[in-house]
Design goal:
There is one protein chain. This protein is mainly alpha-helical and about 475 residues long. It has eleven helices and six strands. The longest helix is centred in the middle third of the chain and has 39 residues. It starts with about 20 loop residues before the first helix and ends in a 34-residue tail after the last helix. Bound molecules: fe (ii) ion (2 copies).
C-alpha cells in the first residue's frame, strides 16, 4: 500500500501529509532542533557517533514496517506515524457510543485531552533520561543495541505526542511540547509528571525490570487511549503499541536470560550463593521485581476515580480491548470487584464499574505481568530448582490509592510499622544489594561475548547471528 509509505526525503518523515500543512510543518521544524539538543544533553551517554544496527519505521501496515540498518543515533529518522484510519470508525463506549469519531478535538474536552496526552508524552523522554548511563555498562553488544532501540523509539513516542499537541491544541499545545523538553527525570524543581519516571535506572537488572513492568504500564495506557473517540490519538497510539511490544520483549527475555544464567551457576556449583560466581541470586531478583512491580502498579492511579469515569463516559479513554468486552459499553449499572484496604484488612468489594476503571486496567496489567513470571519460573523448574518468583500482593509498597496508607507484606498481610521496619530489607533492594548489582555491571563489548550474569539470547535480532556487530566499535 504505497499510501502508507513514509517519505524519507522530508526533514520530518511522516505519513500525515505534513508537507501540505505549512504552518504545522514550520512549528515542528522549529521544535526539531530543540529535541536534538535535548537528545544530546539527556539521551544515551557516549555512543552518539557509533553506528548502531537499528530498525526504523518505513510504513505503518502490520507487515514489514521495519527497516534495519546501521544508523548513528542522532541521525535516527524520528518521525510522525499514525496507523491507517479505520473507515467509518465509531466511538465504541460511553455516552456517545455509536457516533462517528472526532477528527478534531471537541472544545469541551480540550483541557482533559491535553492533560492525557501530556501525561503520556512526558513518560517517553523521562525513560530515555533514566536510562542515559546504561551504555557504559552494557552486558553485550546485543543488549547495547536493544537499549538504544528502546531509547530512539521512546524519542519517537515523544514526537508522536508532540505532533498531536502541535496539530490539535494550538498555542497551549506548543507550550506543552516545549515543557516536555524542560522537565527532567528525578529533578527536584522540574521533575517528570509520574512517580515511577523519576526513579533511577542505575543498572541493567533495573533496566530489564523497567522494560518488563513499567513499559507494560505504557502498553495498557496506550491500548486504552487507542480506543479514544479522538481519532488522531487513537491512530497514534495504535502505531506506538507496535513499537512498545519490542520494549517488553527486551524486558521479558532479558530477565529470562538472567534467571537462566543464575540457575546454571546454581547447578554448576551446587549452591544458592551465586554472588561469588558473578551471577545474581534469585532473592535479589525477587527484591528488584517487588520494587519495579509496585511502583508500576501506582501508575494506574487510585482504585476509585471519578476522573477515570469521566474519561470513559466522554469517550476519551476506553478499557483494554474495549471492543472485545461483552456488555453495554456504558457501564451505568455494572459493578466491579475492587480489592482494597478496610481498616487493617484487605477486602474485595463490589463498586460501581465506572469509577473503578483504573483498577480494572490494573487487573488486566497484573494478569499480563504474571505470564512473564510463569515463564521465568519454568526456566527455574527446568533447571531442577525448587524456587518460584512471585508478584507481590497488590497492596505491597504502594504510594497511591487505598493501600498507600498501610504497610502490606508481599504475601498480602497488613502489618505494623515495626514489622515493616524489621523486614523490608528482605523484600526490597537495600544499599548492599544495589552495590552488589552495581559491582557486576562490567561492560562487555566484544562481539558474541556476554557478561557473567546473563545468558546469551537464543537468537539474534532480525535474523542476524548472536555475534553480529550490533554496535560498531569504530
Ligand atoms: Fe514509549
Ligand atoms: Fe516503551
Amino acid at each position: 500500500m504505497a499510501r502508507e509509505r513514509v517519505d524519507y526525503s522530508e526533514r520530518i518523515p511522516n505519513n500525515v501529509g505534513l508537507a501540505e500543512n505549512r504552518r504545522l510543518l514550520r512549528a515542528l521544524e522549529e521544535w526539531q532542533p530543540r529535541f536534538l539538543d535535548w537528545w544530546q544533553e539527556m539521551g544515551p551517554l557516549g555512543f552518539q557517533t557509533k553506528d548502531v544496527y537499528l530498525r526504523t519505521a518505513i510504513s505503518v501496515d502490520s507487515q514489514g514496517w521495519a527497516h534495519f540498518d546501521y544508523v548513528k543515533m542522532p541521525e535516527y529518522r524520528w518521525g510522525i506515524f499514525l496507523a491507517e484510519p479505520e473507515p467509518d470508525r465509531r466511538i465504541a463506549f460511553g455516552a456517545q457510543r455509536g457516533q462517528p469519531v472526532w477528527p478534531e478535538v471537541p472544545g469541551e474536552y480540550r483541557g482533559v485531552l491535553r492533560r492525557l496526552i501530556v501525561t503520556q508524552g512526558d513518560t517517553e523522554p523521562a525513560s530515555v533520561e533514566q536510562q542515559r548511563h546504561l551504555g557504559r555498562t552494557c552486558p553485550s553488544l546485543y543488549d547495547l543495541r536493544n537499549l538504544f532501540q528502546v531509547n530512539v523509539e521512546e524519542g519517537r513516542h515523544l514526537w508522536a505526542m508532540v505532533y498531536l499537541l502541535h496539530a490539535h491544541f494550538g498555542r497551549d499545545g506548543r507550550e506543552e511540547a516545549e515543557a516536555m523538553l524542560q522537565r527532567r527525570s528525578g529533578d527536584q524543581d522540574r521533575p517528570r509528571i509520574l512517580g515511577a519516571f523519576n526513579e533511577k535506572t542505575p543498572d541493567w537488572l533495573s533496566f530489564f525490570m523497567f522494560t518488563y513492568f513499567t513499559d507494560r504500564d505504557g502498553k495498557y495506557q496506550l491500548a486504552s487511549l487507542a480506543e479514544s473517540g479522538f481519532d488522531p490519538l487513537s491512530r497514534t497510539c495504535r502505531f506506538m503499541l507496535t513499537e512498545e511490544a519490542h520494549h517488553m520483549f527486551v524486558g521479558e527475555t532479558g530477565l529470562g536470560r538472567i534467571v537462566q544464567r543464575t540457575c546454571e551457576v546454581m547447578r554448576e556449583h551446587g549452591t544458592d550463593d551465586v554472588r561469588r560466581f558473578g551471577a545474581i541470586d534469585l532473592p535479589t531478583i525477587q527484591k528488584y521485581l517487588n520494587f519495579h512491580y509496585s511502583v508500576s502498579l501506582d501508575l494506574f492511579g487510585s482504585e476509585v476515580s471519578t476522573n477515570a469515569a469521566n474519561f470513559y463516559t466522554s469517550g476519551l479513554k476506553g478499557r483494554f480491548e474495549e471492543a472485545k468486552q461483552n456488555d453495554d459499553h456504558a457501564l451505568h449499572d455494572a459493578r466491579y470487584g475492587v480489592t482494597q484496604l478496610e481498616g487493617d484488612r484487605v477486602v474485595t468489594r463490589d463498586e460501581p464499574a465506572l469509577t473503578t476503571l483504573n483498577e480494572r486496567l490494573r487487573d488486566d496489567y497484573i494478569a499480563d505481568c504474571q505470564r512473564g513470571v510463569d515463564r521465568w519460573n519454568r526456566i527455574i523448574k527446568q533447571a531442577g530448582i525448587d524456587v518460584e518468583l512471585r508478584l507481590p500482593h497488590r497492596g505491597f509498597h504502594r504510594a497511591i490509592g487505598s493501600f498507600a496508607e498501610a504497610r502490606v507484606s508481599p504475601d498480602g498481610r497488613v502489618i505494623g510499622q515495626a514489622e515493616w521496619d524489621g523486614r523490608h530489607h528482605e523484600w526490597l533492594p537495600v544499599e548492599a544489594d544495589e552495590r552488589f548489582v552495581q559491582s557486576l555491571m562490567q561492560p562487555v563489548t566484544e562481539r558474541g561475548k556476554f557478561v557473567s550474569w546473563i545468558a546469551p539470547p537464543p537468537r539474534g535480532i532480525n535474523g542476524q547471528p548472536i555475534d553480529f556487530e550490533y554496535v560498531r566499535q569504530v
